[in-house]
């Protein structure tokens, strides 16, 4: 079992660009959540996907959007990048109130 | 809305000693879960220990144990016989019925050889 995987590991973009981050959940997990972790801070909840629908959302602007595919993998898209979007983006998967397993994260740097 | 507070930004302790990390939280829910996660420099968030709020018995996992005081909304982590590999950021987190995790700001723990 490969656990939760994320790609890419690192990414550098410039202001105004768009970015797509990808996550494959742990085998058997159907729920994927995305978190943003700024340097020196705890992770902040962005949104959660279940059955290909956004089930709930944190306090993030509409520039942040996502998608879940039939195989439960997920994408996080960020449009019109700002310097403040620089962070570690974490994906977590779970199966109904069990432990959330985290991926290694994608480090996004916006210049 | 849930909030989680960790009031110790940094702590250090000698190897083999015991250390306690503090966490307080606020929630309006009756059924919830509390967690301690470890994040080493590799960035991988690793679950250390989990507590269900409806269970009065404190959770233990080998050298790790918690002191869960539900009325006081306190959830501290005790690490016994600390090891160099315990050096990491530690995050306290709350999960309610919506499976959304709310994290504290973390405590940087350093184990001194």
Describe this structure in words.
- The complex is a heterodimer of chains A (111) and B (113).
- Chain A contains no helices and eleven strands.
- Chain A is mostly beta strands and 111 residues long.
- Chain A has one domain (5-110): Immunoglobulin-like.
- In chain A, the strands form two sheets. In chain A, strands 2, 4, 5, 6, 9, 10 and 11 form a seven-stranded mixed sheet that branches.
- In chain A, a hairpin with a 5-residue loop joins strand 7 and strand 8 (74-78).
- The model of chain A has no long low-confidence stretch (mean pLDDT 94).
- With 113 residues, chain B is mainly beta.
- Chain B has one domain: Immunoglobulins (Immunoglobulin-like, Sandwich).
- Chain B is built from no helices and twelve strands.
- In chain B, the strands form three sheets. In chain B, strands 2, 5, 6, 10, 11 and 12 form a six-stranded mixed sheet that branches.
- The radius of gyration of chain B is 13 Å and the shape is globular.
- Chain B starts with a strand and ends with a strand.
- The interface between A and B is medium-sized, with 27 and 22 residues.
